[in-house]
């Protein structure tokens, strides 16, 4: 099972949803970065369960522990070990479901592939696996900001059929995004989104949504032509997040409905003296390489597969049965996915920065 992401900034995650701990090993972080648990914890706290009545009731503080790679408050350039203990695991909640593959979950595919699986909470297929990514990505975010001033901001732009207005050019802050529990900075849309999630939860159902992400101050020239294009690598990173079902960058699918004369991004001399584009339908990437404009993309998340609503399905033996899933589950994952999208973006950009630096040596 591949659990490693990156080429020069490598992140290997470990742990299961209801095991003793989850975490990551980060290999390739430059030395002498000032780093402590306090630098990593904010993103983990934004990802943690139990933040509101719209998320799973699982009560986890998700306190990170740095095991290695840091001494006297600075990175050593050696592998950084990161761990978060699971304290509120309840594998017994899943006993009745051990012989029933949950519809649209990974139970069936894991069992068929490995002949075994962690039946409690989905094991590695659970979104709890993303803790290691978020911790590793928080380190990358800090380094990228200190070296280049790169800012990565994500927010909820759709829930169900409710869409927020386009805010991709408004210079949002995380404080603005976190001002409400759905993490949508469009307050009018946020109220409607919260109502949709609460109604789905009341019916023991779930609902999906879309996140928008913007990375600002990304240097020109990141990304590899052909197979490791910036947008291709971002797509791989985003679609590796549990529950993701779609990725689009810049104009995305809407661009397919435009003429070239409408879609092309003309160049102009910017006030700071650099050559840039008037519009940004390209989403900050041309020919697979960053062009210096903000990288703008969207990620679609499906409704969570595990729901309490009764579903007619079948056991692994093919016998018809009714499943009413037990346990604690999110009726909508998008609010908690915001820091996951941000940190996976940081991991992708960090790796390209280091590869470009290595090429220029």
What string gives the helices and strands in order?
EEEHEEEEHHEEHHEHEHEEEEEEEH
DSSP helix fraction: 25-40%
CATH third-tier fold name:
Chorismate synthase, AroC fold
Query: Which CATH C-level class is it?
Result: Alpha Beta
Please describe the structure with a list of short key phrases separated by commas or semicolons:
single chain; 27% helix; Chorismate synthase, AroC fold; 361 residues; 18 strands; 8 helices; five-stranded antiparallel beta sheet; alpha+beta; 22% strand
Give a topology summary.
Layout: E1 4-5, E2 10-14, E3 21-27, H1 37-47, E4 64-68, E5 70-71, E6 74-75, E7 80-85, H2 107-114, H3 130-148, E8 151-159, E9 162-163, H4 174-177, H5 187-202, E10 209-216, H6 230-239, E11 244-249, H7 260-263, E12 267-269, E13 275-277, E14 285-286, E15 289-290, E16 295-301, E17 311-314, E18 320-323, H8 334-360
Antiparallel strand pairs: 1-2, 2-3, 3-7, 4-7, 5-6, 8-9, 8-10, 10-16, 11-16, 12-13, 14-15, 17-18
Summarize the structure.
With 361 residues, the chain is an alpha+beta fold. The protein is built from eight helices and 18 strands. The strands form six sheets. The chain has a five-stranded antiparallel sheet, with helices on one face. It has a five-stranded antiparallel sheet with strand order 9-8-10-16-11. The chain has a two-stranded antiparallel sheet with strand order 5-6.
């Amino acid at each position: 099972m591949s659990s490693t992401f990156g080429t020069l900034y490598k992140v290997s995650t470990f742990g299961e949803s209801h095991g003793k701990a989850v975490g990551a090993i980060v290999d390739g972080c430059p030395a002498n970065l000032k780093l402590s648990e306090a630098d990593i914890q904010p993103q983990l706290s934004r990802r943690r369960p139990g933040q509101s009545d719209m998320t799973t009731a699982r009560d986890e503080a998700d306190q990170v522990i740095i095991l290695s790679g840091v001494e006297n408050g600075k990175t050593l350039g050696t592998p950084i070990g990161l761990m978060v203990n699971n304290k509120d695991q309840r594998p017994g909640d899943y006993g009745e479901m051990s012989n029933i593959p949950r519809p649209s979950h990974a139970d069936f595919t894991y069992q068929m592939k490995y002949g075994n699986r962690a039946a409690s909470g989905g094991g590695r297929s659970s979104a709890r696996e993303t803790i290691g990514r978020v911790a590793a990505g928080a380190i990358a975010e800090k380094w990228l900001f200190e070296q280049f001033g790169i800012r990565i901001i994500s927010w909820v732009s759709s829930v169900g059929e409710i869409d927020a207005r386009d805010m991709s050019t408004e210079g949002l802050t995380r404080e603005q995004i976190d001002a409400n529990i759905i993490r949508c900075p469009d307050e009018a849309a946020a109220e409607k989104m919260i109502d949709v999630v609460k109604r789905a939860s009341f019916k023991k159902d779930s609902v999906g949504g879309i996140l928008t992400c913007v990375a600002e101050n990304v240097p020109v020239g990141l990304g590899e032509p052909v197979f490791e294009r910036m947008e291709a690598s971002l797509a791989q990173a985003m679609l590796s997040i549990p529950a993701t079902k779609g990725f689009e960058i810049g104009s995305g699918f809407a661009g397919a409905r435009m003429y070239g004369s409408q879609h092309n991004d003309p160049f102009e001399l910017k006030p700071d003296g650099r050559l840039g584009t008037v519009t940004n339908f390209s989403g900050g990437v041309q020919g697979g390489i960053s062009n210096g404009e903000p990288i703008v993309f969207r990620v679609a998340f499906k409704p969570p597969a595990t729901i309490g609503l009764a579903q007619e399905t079948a056991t692994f033996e093919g016998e018809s049965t009714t499943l009413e899933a037990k346990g604690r589950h999110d009726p909508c994952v998008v609010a908690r996915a915001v820091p996951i999208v941000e940190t996976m973006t940081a991991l992708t950009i960090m790796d390209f920065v280091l590869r470009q630096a290595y090429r220029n040596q």
